[in-house]
Design brief:
By secondary structure, this protein is α/β, with parallel strands linked by helices. The protein has three domains: 258 residues, HUPs (Rossmann fold); 142 residues, Isoleucyl-tRNA Synthetase, Domain 1 (Orthogonal Bundle), CATH 1.10.730; 57 residues, no CATH class. The strands form five sheets. The protein has a four-stranded parallel sheet with strand order 4-3-9-10, sandwiched between helices. Strands 5-6-7-8 form a four-stranded antiparallel sheet, with helices on one face. A three-stranded mixed sheet has the order 12-11-13. Helix 1 links the parallel strand 3 and strand 4. Helix 4 packs across helix 8, helix 12 runs antiparallel to helix 13 and helix 13 packs antiparallel against helix 14. The protein starts with 5 loop residues before the first strand and ends with a strand. About 3% of the residues have low confidence.
Length: 504
């Protein structure tokens, strides 16, 4: 299967032509959430980015195995090798079992992802369900001489690894810089070197989350889970590993070192990273306390929010920027995204109301005839979603011109325009009607059916209004219009009949 898809590879720092390990198949691993709190806008960015990639790869005809993990153990405070486990700390504060915390926030994360229109991954493994695989990974690294045991913990020997392989290839750091910039940590005496990182941590007596191992009771280091689970479900050499830019160092750098130290070769071909969401120029994150949860966005219940924002507005806001660029939160930007999305969705809805002519005018035909290829070219250039959206706005302008009788479109061009707009806006960008995305679980299909029936009812009322106008029954005609307006509908009378949009 030939592909023209270019992907920016963080490892090589350039765009590369995508060539899968196995023709026709793609193995993709994406770092998922640590489930100790509600998902925020920063979590939405990688979820939407790699959902876009997942959708597009499937559209191109690849059979994709998309693995996204759930971290439910081992992620210590401040991403360090000391301190309390983030989930265990939350459980202690709320007087719950750690798995109660993990399950609760995993469920909440899934609800938010469904609302955002993100397809579920093929496999979603939990770190706690793969302790055996992580222990085996540590065994292999120890056997190959790149780790050592210390007081019941096992640490990766970065300096020894660096003698044969380069530690810092992904992040561009050299070992001297890493040593000089490393923080002093409690329990430093356990390590031979300040830069060494934990593969297995001995559990203190009060530590609830603990498993038996050859080195004593403990739990795996945070970096182990992705290497172990990626290899289990995608093999010792797979195509794409994704995540947020903040994971490049140390998490993904350590993943590379673990893979090479255990099997003697790289495990991933393409490393992809989306940039951060910022608020006031600062990274949005739980550790900084400056985050706004997705649920707060959907309900408008946060002091920094001027209003509630629908999930599809959030998705559109994220896709309006290229995944490798920074996105800065502001109400103004979100409100602009809301207006842009409404304009695009209105144009798509108006497609079915257009009446084809014998032929298209020159401007219409020029836009329509090149639209599909322009959208493909943008997607193939490292998922340039902002450019795809720009092309779709060109298409929306065509719809509006034809609807206002300022242009004409042939039946063939109308069919092509409709097919391309639905394909790229809905199937690939995932910009679904907001009502279909906000319903959790298996209720989505039923909600979409209710939405369609709802639209038919409004159309029926407008048909009754048209009949009343034809009978010169102005009182009934005005009553229907005024009642719909009071409910939030905007009614526009055109030469081809009345159209409506819901503005609430």
């Amino acid at each position: 299967m030939e592909s023209s898809l270019l992907i920016y590879n963080t490892l090589s720092r350039q765009k590369e032509l995508f060539r899968p390990v196995i023709p026709g198949r793609v193995g993709m691993y994406v770092c998922g959430p640590t489930v100790y709190g509600d998902a925020h806008l920063g979590h939405a960015r990688p979820a939407i980015t790699f959902d876009l990639l997942f959708r597009y790869l499937q559209h191109l005809g690849y059979k994709v195995r998309y693995v996204r993990n759930i971290t439910d153990v081992g992620h210590l405070e401040h991403d360090a090798d000391e301190g309390e486990d983030k989930i265990a700390k939350k459980a202690r504060l709320e007087q719950l079992e750690p798995m109660e915390v993990a399950q609760h926030y995993a469920n909440r994360f899934h609800d938010a992802m469904r609302a955002l229109g993100c397809l579920p991954p093929s496999i979603e493994p939990h770190a706690t369900g793969h302790i055996i695989e992580q222990i085996e990974l540590v065994r292999e690294i120890l056997a190959n001489g790149y780790a050592y045991e210390s007081q019941g913990s096992v640490y990766f020997d970065v300096e020894k690894y660096n003698q044969k392989y380069r530690y810092g290839r992904l992040s561009g750091r050299n070992l001297t810089d890493v040593i000089n910039n490393s923080r002093e940590l409690d329990g430093q005496s356990e390590k031979r070197n300040q830069v060494d990182f934990a593969l297995w941590k001995a559990a203190q007596p009060q530590h609830i989350m603990r498993w038996p191992s050859p080195w004593g009771a403990g739990f795996p280091g945070w970096h182990c889970e992705c290497t172990a689970m990626g290899r289990k479900y995608l093999g010792s050499h797979f195509d794409i590993h994704g995540g947020g830019l903040d994971l490049v160092f140390p998490h993904h750098e350590c993943e590379i070192a673990q893979a090479v130290a255990s099997q003697g070769s790289d495990i991933v071909n393409y490393w992809m990273h989306c940039n951060m969401v910022t608020i006031g120029g600062q990274k949005m994150g739980k550790s900084l306390g400056n985050f706004i949860t997705l649920d707060q966005f959907f309900s408008g219940t946060h002091e920094k929010l001027a209003q509630a924002y629908a999930p599809m507005t959030i998705r559109f806001f994220i896709l309006q920027a290229h995944y490798r660029s920074t996105v800065d939160f502001s109400n103004e930007a979100l409100q602009a995204a809301e207006r842009g999305l409404q304009r695009l969705q209105a144009a798509i809805a108006d497609l079915r109301r257009l009446s084809p002519s014998a032929e298209s005018d020159a401007q219409t035909h020029q836009v329509v005839s090149s639209l599909r290829q322009r959208c493909y070219d943008a997607m193939n250039d490292d998922l340039a979603s902002p450019l795809v959206i720009s092309h779709l706005f060109d298409a929306a302008s065509v719809v509006n011109r034809v609807a206002d009788h300022k242009g004409s479109i042939s039946a063939a061009d109308l069919e092509e325009l409709s097919a391309v707009m639905h394909l790229f806006a809905e199937d690939i960008l995932g910009l679904l009607p907001a009502s279909a995305a906000t319903v959790a679980g298996g209720m989505q299909a039923a909600s979409a059916a209710r939405e369609e029936a709802f639209g038919h009812v409004v159309d029926m009322l407008l048909e009754q209004r048209a009949a009343a106008k034809a009978a010169r029954d102005w009182a009934t005609s005005d009553h229907i219009r005024d009642s719909l307006t009071a409910l939030g509908f905007e009614i526009k009378d055109t030469k081809d009949g009345a159209t409506w949009t819901l503005n609430k």
